[in-house]
Amino acid sequence: MATTTETLRQIKEELLAFCASPLYEERTTNMVFPVIGEGNHHAKVMFVGEAPGKNEARTGRPFCGASGRVLDELLAHISLPRAEVYVTNVVKDRPPLNRDPKPEEIALYAPFLDRQIEAIQPKIIVTLGRFSMQYMMERLGLAAHIASISVIRGRVFDASVSYGSVKLIPMFHPAVGIYSRQSMPTLKADMETLKSLL
Hints:
alpha/beta, Uracil-DNA Glycosylase, subunit E, 9 helices, six-stranded mixed β-sheet
């Protein structure tokens, strides 16, 4: 049986060669990278964003630009080292001009995320933004609880997965903290909810 690291390496190789994606041409035209994910391969906490931005696509690393700095600030607020968590996105390639991911793009890339979750087996999944929130809530059988992210952010949902139970916490995307610094107390409060579960 493949180890977690071997499984994640296989996922990476498949994504690097994922020319079936309509976003593959965007990748090759702009000489950028897919953003597969990084962090602890045995993380208790997995953060799932929506899709890479420009800086992420240039480096192949998730949350390495301005949103990443906000995420790092939020992790520091609860003394959770980034090296202890795993960070990824639903969509692994950057949509043109940072537009929202389309439903068909989410559907195309989601199986890779599902396999990452199965390999890492996190106990807590934190969604960052409404697209990852909606996908994960549907995937975990929580569709009946879907509402506006401003209504359910910071709430804890329990779900069953193949390896046991998992807690899901929807949160605003860290980009909110860039455009609206007055939202930082809300973002920090939601991170404190996460800390209470660790």
